[in-house]
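User: Fold this; tokens only.

Assistant: Input:
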Amino acid sequence: MDDRELFLGNLLVDACAALDARQLDTFDAIVDQAGDDRQELLDMVEVALSLRGPGEPSPELVQQVALSPMFDVRPWPEILETARLEASIKRPALLTQLAERLGVRGEGAQERLSERYHELETGQLEPARVQPALLDALGDLLGGIRETLAATRFNPMPDLGPSAVLNRSGDVAYAMMLTDEAAFEPEPTTDAERMVDELFGV
């Protein structure tokens, strides 16, 4: 074995160790050391990994994957309320920030925003229809949970049971089923109100 082969062999050991530790920057630096033999070293790494087969994942990696948003099975109502309470934000305060972030102006449009958010947090609206601008705003205002919201928007919704009624203190109260007259919402009468409906996918 000549010096070149010995050198590449040592780099191979170091490169595989860096990959095992998921130190990609270190791996790139090791490969760069091969110079003109860079591609040959990459081929050697590929062969070595294929012969070794997949290794057992570390406990840290298993925990990291388990905590990934893609494995979060919670529905949006639970995620939104939990994030809001953890951030110590009352619903009226959140709605004020949300209106400013989304450019919702006018009393009628802000009331519409309040109604629609209530429906979203209590499971009466499908998160899958929420527009990206609203998704971004909620993610930022509720502690940086945009990735979680995006990954869970198609999760099954909970069974509502009795209709949830807005309690303006920011809490959710449950009441008897709404009357037939109350079940019909008025159509939006302004462009601002229509914009709010579009943001919530209504």
